[in-house]
Design a protein that fits this description.
- The chain has about 1150 residues and is an alpha/beta fold.
- The protein has 24 helices and 58 strands.
- The protein has a six-stranded mixed β-sheet, with no helix packed on it. A six-stranded parallel β-sheet has the order 24-26-27-28-30-32. Strands 15-17-19-21-22 form a five-stranded parallel β-sheet, with no helix packed on it.
- Strand 41 and strand 42 form a beta hairpin.
- Helix 3 crosses helix 19 and helix 12 packs across helix 19.
- It is extended.
């Protein structure tokens, strides 16, 4: 059990890290800003409240669950357990006990207590009640030890959350910035205990358990386990106190019972939990130890109890016999105790319901509820013992025969079974509680639990046995209209009410039986396929016009192709849990099918499975489905709500085509491809969340989604198909991801589209991309675009300004046709062709500048020439150019461009920029050199702050747009695109120091944590809290050494020369330190390198002189021949250089080489 707790502790710490550490960081950052004390206090309160909201009080939550069932996201799973418990019929032990107290003789068994109870006890019934209560508590603990341990793990987990919540609130209040659960767990036990000094709710627990903890992780674990067990102890105390108070409130108080309760609760309150026993043995053993100590305490006060060992035989020792006479007394006493416990439970529930925020009241209610459930199980155990002792051949006394009559029982065995059944029911209630606790301790509601809790009270619909009894045959109050065989081993019967029963075994390979009968297919209204039938042929029930309901047996694993297609009146179908596949067009044109629950084990749904199911409103696709196949929900015009599986990768052609009532849908992040026409004609679709890994959107995928106003395309997207967003009339803005390189008809008919951001890598705008985008006024074309295709901007009637990039070679037919607000455009030198009607009916177009002398201008005919009906047009171009020829032919004013030099101009109003064609930019951006500039409507360069399309930019005094820098005297920041970033704080990059050590602040205010960082050529490592580390550090099984400066040591001896690290900073184990220098032994001189090696058969330069060492490493002297060259080595071993040697006989040059024949 301890291992399990530790594992869950780890999970809780991870959870606490992600939730609580984030809250702490946010709150700390806010505290660091310039806030008033009041604002700081408010933020602390807000953060604390958020933490409280993250993990509601365990006992309050559990009480709500008992009272009203499990509520998650507005849905309640399961009925009220308290209601279920109260509605269960009076338990057998209580009913029998009531009869005994009425002194009705049962069999020949006397109920005279004088003959039953030992004389020592008779005058002190308080001891009897003490013994019974303690026996019950012992029974409760030992009978369900495994269950008890499991529930304690869950409760301990909830305490882990509480502990970290309390710590977080403490640190927030103290203004600690860098606290995290991981950091806390690395503290020593002593420091951790000190940290709890400011947490009042944890003080007593810490003091109790601290001596048992060897690490902070163990301290936290023990605190949680101890608190959980202390809760159970208090619940038992409260249970008995509530029963005691109930007894006191009766008209004739039972003073013996009240005294017994006081004795037990007093002893339990004064008995401490054995912490070491809890740690070593577990929760159930820890509680058993506590109970034994309480019993010993009670026994010290009464010598009679001291002679009894509490346990399975305690009651038999207490009473004279284990026979019925003893059980008589037990039952009657248990009956009175049942009254007190039940009354106490009801009182606890009312007190809680009056104040549902009180955790103590919630805890009391929970304890009373679970305690009373266990008490009933304990009572039934005594009842079964009594039944066994009074039965004689199955004959029972007349006095309690009415019990049998009420329950329709035949003998004592059945009465015993009834007791067993009640015990089982109460056990099931406890199991549900444990399941709820497990769900809560994990914080999240798993799908399988949701499913389990949502199972209806009634079983899965089956044939009503009152009407149809399928065994040796079928009998029914309804008349049979037809019966016959479906196959060799399967049969069918049709009743006059329209119910067709198919039963037997095996597959049905054809549907001839439907057509070979003497009844009309229109008679069939309901079909029930019984268990045993394993397969149905393709189209088996196709076109049954009046079929309304279908129930399939558990052995059907696949619904065949066209199985129910065109069953237009089919409204509901019950599918078996074992179903794995639904065939092609299985439910196509089932117009009235409005209720469909797909089994969790479903793996495949084939093409057009639900085609034209026009009444289907909602559906949940099981997790086993990875592809939504072609046309699966095509024409399901009422489909509003759909839940997609988390591992879905692809949505095929027309999957949701015509789902006109769909307004919202979220695609899981596993989806990579949306094929053609998937959401075609979903004209009420307003919101869609696309997968973050989506790479492709197919042709027409969102065509005619008239109400789609906003959509975010993920960065992963690389392909958008033709007409993908055709006629999305409400779409106002779009940002195309950087991976997309071409667009074709994509946004044609998007009449409200105003803001478009195109990626820098876009190369082609193909046919009609922005056709009829009537609200589009400005658009910036990326520099890599080479072609503007046919009709790209046709009927963009609001388009005023557009700059064509210098790489465009062709302007297609109708490219700017009917752009009636366009006044000026420059055709760059790269353009070689202007297509037919390219600028037709641009009525306000006043100036076109064509920079290429040879640009081909289409003039197929006079009516269809490139600038047809541009009545205000003047063309600017070079002499003898095709532009001049065209202008002269069509009587268009032509202005010849002289050698105008592009550049900046200035007049009294300001700076402006003249293009090489004499034009100048107006009300637009222009890139000049490496910088962007913006010019106003009159063409003058702008400076300072500028707001365009709800985005602020800052233009320097030079007019250049600021990028990725602080502006306006360092007050504000603009990003790499020049856009203002609100709320960004300016930080000074560099080293910082506080009481805990050195840390490094980045320019964006962040700081490295648990990572490497290179600063001015040196490498540093920072811990999880961001502090610079020094000394030895192990990372990925490699040791590194950091100097006192924090810089990583490289290729040197460290730690006072004890260890060596290589050029990468990695510790080299076993390496010895050597002193570099000359050494001498009996054979001569040699030289030791710093790594312990020595040169052999090689030259080595030492202190500026060259020496040669032989094959054994010894220094050479005298003449030395290497190859064909002689060298002279002096007695010191140093090579002679540029001097006479051997008393002036020979000369060696500056490289030490002997020069033959040289004379002095």
């Amino acid at each position: 059990m301890k291992k399990k707790v530790i594992l869950i502790l780890t999970a809780i710490i991870v959870f606490a890290s992600s939730v609580i550490a984030n809250q702490c960081t946010i709150a700390a950052a806010e505290l660091n800003s310039e806030s008033s004390e009041m604002e700081v206090a408010n933020k602390l309160d807000s953060a604390a409240q958020e933490l409280q909201d993250e993990a509601p009080e365990y006992d309050v939550w559990l009480s709500d669950t008992i009272v009203s069932g499990l509520s998650m996201n507005g849905t309640t799973y399961g009925d009220s357990m308290y209601k279920l418990f109260k509605e269960i019929q009076e338990p057998i032990y209580a009913e029998l006990g009531g009869l005994i107290l009425e002194d009705i003789p049962l069999m020949s068994v006397s109920s005279v207590w004088h003959d039953v109870v030992k004389r020592d006890f008779y005058d002190n019934q308080k001891l009897i009640y003490e013994a019974l209560l303690m026996d019950y508590i012992k029974y409760e603990n030992t009978t369900n030890a495994a269950s008890f341990d499991t529930s304690q793990i869950d409760r301990a987990n909830s305490y882990l959350i509480k502990i970290f919540n309390e710590l977080t609130k403490k640190y927030l209040a103290e203004g600690v910035q860098n606290w995290s659960p991981e950091q806390f767990m690395d503290m020593s036990v002593e420091d951790a205990v000190k940290s709890f000094e400011g947490v009042e709710t944890m003080q007593k627990t810490v003091k109790t358990v601290q001596s048992a903890a060897k690490s902070t992780k163990q301290l936290i674990s023990i605190m949680a386990e101890f608190s959980a067990l202390e809760d159970i102890k208090q619940e038992k105390i409260q249970l008995i106190k509530k029963a005691r108070d109930a007894a006191k409130g009766f008209e004739n108080p039972n003073n013996d019972f009240i005294s017994a309760c006081d004795e037990i609760t007093g002893q339990m309150e004064s008995t401490a939990i054995d912490v070491n026993y809890l740690i070593t043995k577990g929760a159930s053993a820890g509680m058993e130890k506590l109970i034994d100590k309480v019993w010993s305490g009670l026994a010290e006060k009464n010598v009679v109890l001291k002679s009894i060992d509490l346990g399975s035989g305690a009651m038999d020792i207490l009473f004279n016999t284990s026979e019925a006479s003893s059980d008589n007394l037990k039952l009657s006493l248990l009956y009175t105790m049942d009254c007190y416990l039940k009354t106490g439970l009801n009182q606890a529930s009312m007190e809680y319901l009056e104040n549902k925020s009180d955790n103590d009241l919630a805890q009391t209610f929970n304890g009373c509820f679970e305690g009373y459930v266990e008490f009933q199980m304990y009572g039934n155990k005594v009842a079964k013992s009594w039944i066994g002792s009074v039965t004689d051949g199955g004959v029972l006394n007349h006095a309690f025969s009415y019990i049998f009559y009420r329950e329709n029982l035949k003998n004592a065995s059945e009465l015993k079974s009834l007791c067993d059944s009640q015990s089982k029911t109460r056990g099931q209630i406890l199991s549900i509680l444990e399941k709820y606790q497990k769900i809560y301790s994990g914080q999240y509601m798993k799908d399988e639990y949701k499913q389990a809790m949502s199972v209806p009270i009634m079983p899965t619909p089956t044939v009503d046995p009152k009407d149809y009894n399928i065994s040796e045959g079928i009998t029914s109050p309804n008349q049979i209209g037809y019966s016959g065989a479906c196959s060799d081993s399967a049969y069918c019967k049709l009743f006059e009410d329209g119910t067709l029963i198919i039963y037997g075994s095996g597959n049905i390979d054809n549907n001839d039986f439907l057509y070979n009968s003497d009844y009309s297919l229109n008679d069939i209204k309901k079909i029930v396929v019984s268990d045993g039938i394993t397969g149905l042929c393709d189209g088996i029930f196709h076109d049954l016009e009046n079929l309304e309901e279908v129930i399939l047996g558990k052995d059907i694993t696949r619904i065949s192709n066209n199985a129910f297609s065109e069953c237009e009146e089919l409204k509901s179908i019950t599918l078996p849990e074992g179903l794995t596949s639904i065939g092609e067009s299985a439910f196509a044109s089932c117009w009235n099918l409005n209720n469909m629950e797909l089994p969790k084990g479903l793996k495949d749904i084939e093409n057009n499975a639900f085609l034209y199911c026009e009444s289907l409103e909602s559906i949940v696709i099981p997790e086993g489905i990875t592809v939504l196949k072609e046309g699966i929900f095509n024409g399901c015009r009422s489909l509003k709500n759909i839940t997609l599986p988390s591992k879905l990768t692809k949505i095929e052609f027309s999957a949701f085509n015509g789902c006109s009532e769909m307004e919202n849908i979220t695609l899981p992040d596993s989806v990579k491809e949306i094929e053609e026409d998937v959401f075609y004609f979903c004209f009420n679709l307003k919101n869609i969340t696309l997968s973050k890994t989506l790479t492709s959107i197919g042709e027409g995928a969102f065509s005619f989604c008239w109400n789609l106003k906003d959509i975010t395309l993920p960065d992963s997207l690389i392909q958008i198909g033709k007409n993908a967003f055709f006629d999305c009339g409400e779409l106002e803005k779009i940002i195309i991801p950087k991976g997309v390189t071409s667009l074709n008809g994509t946004f044609s008919g998007c009449t409200k589209l105003k803001n478009v951001t195109l990626p820098t890598g876009l190369k082609k705008l193909e046919n009609g991309v922005f056709a009829s985008c009537e609200s589009l006024q400005n658009i910036v074309l990326p520099e890599e675009i080479t072609e503007i295709g046919s009709g790209v901007f046709i009927r963009c009637s609001s388009l005023k300004n557009i700059v064509l990039p210098d790489k465009i070679t062709k302007i297609g037919e109708d490219a700017f046709g009917e752009c009636r607000s366009l006044t000026d455009i420059t055709i760059p030198n790269s353009v070689t062709q202007i297509g037919r009607l390219a600028f037709e009916k641009c009525y306000k177009l006043e100036r076109v500048t064509i920079l290429n002398k040879a640009t081909e201008i289409d003039e197929t005919d006079e009516a269809g020439n490139a600038f047809a009906e541009c009545s205000e047009l003047s063309i600017y171009g070079y002499p003898n150019s095709t532009a001049e020829t065209y202008a002269n032919k069509y009587n268009i004013p032509f202005t010849s461009l002289t050698s105008i030099k592009a550049g900046w101009k200035k007049n009294s109003k300001g700076w402006w920029y003249q293009n090489s064609d004499g034009s100048y930019p107006k009300n637009q951006w222009k890139k000049i050199g490496k910088d962007w500039y913006h010019f106003d409507a009159s063409g003058y360069m702008q400076t300072g702050w500028l707001k365009l399309d709800n985005t602020w930019y800052y233009l320097k005094d030079t007019g250049a747009m600021a990028k990725d820098e602080w502006v306006d005297n360092g007050k504000h920041y603009v990003d790499a695109d020049g856009k203002y970033v609100p709320g960004k704080v300016k930080y000074t990059e560099g080293w910082k120091k506080d009481a805990k050590g050195w840390w490094y602040q980045n320019s964006d205010g962040s700081y490295p944590k648990n990572e490497w960082k290179t600063i001015k050529g040196a490498r540093y490592h920072f811990d999880a809290n961001g502090y610079m580390q020094t000394g030895w550090l192990k990372l990925d099984n490699i040791w590194y050494y950091f100097k006192t400066s924090g810089a990583m040591a490289k290729d040197e001896w460290v730690d006072n020369g004890k260890s060596y690290v290589d050029a990468d900073g990695k510790y080299v184990p076993g390496k010895k330190k050597y002193t570099e220098g000359w050494k001498k032994d009996a054979k001569g001189w040699w030289y030791q390198n710093k790594d312990g090696s020595y040169p052999k058969s090689k030259w080595k330069q030492i202190s500026g002189k060259w020496y040669y060492f032989d094959a054994d490493g010894y220094m050479k002297t005298g003449w030395l021949k290497i190859g064909n060259i002689w060298y002279y080595l002096k007695d010191s071993g140093a090579m002679a250089e540029n001097e006479w040697v051997e008393n002036g006989k020979y000369f060696v040059d500056a490289n030490g080489k002997y020069i033959a024949g040289k004379k002095a």
